[in-house]
Amino acid sequence: MQDSTHIYNLEELIDYAEKYNIPKLIENKKLVERNYKLMQLSNVDISESIKTIVKEKINEKIPRLAKYKIQVMILEDKLFTAIKNSTV
């Protein structure tokens, strides 16, 4: 499983686990299958408009972190005792 250009599918992963006796993967086969279906990105089950929104968010400029704004929010929410070094 070292080929970086090959996209492995679920069957290949399970076969590999059985061939090389990887017990955690074999024992949790159903969980792995469920997670694979949830997380696979080759056939996404979302609308085109949502895909567009996600792409736009990815391409947006990342806002600059303003430390003082975070400190103001901490004060407003009275979290200064819950967060260590909130004034640093």
Number of distinct beta strands: 0
- Helix-strand topology string: HHHHH
- What would the average pLDDT be, to the nearest integer? 85
Q: Specify the helix fraction band.
A: 40-55%
Strand content: under 5%
**What is the count of DSSP helices, taking H or I runs of 4+ residues?**
5
Structural class: mainly alpha
Categorize the overall geometry.
elongated
* Main β sheet profile: none
Question: Which stretches are poorly predicted, pLDDT < 50 over at least 5 residues?
Answer: none
Q: How far is the first residue's CA from the last residue's CA? A: 46 Å
The rounded Rg comes to 22 Å
Can you describe what's shown?
- This protein is an all-alpha fold and 88 residues long.
- The chain is 55% helix and 0% strand.
Task: Describe the structure in brief.
This protein has helices spanning 10-19, 23-27, 29-39, 48-59, 67-76.
Key features of this structure:
5 helices; 88 residues; single chain; mainly alpha
Topology summary:
Blueprint: H1 10-19, H2 23-27, H3 29-39, H4 48-59, H5 67-76
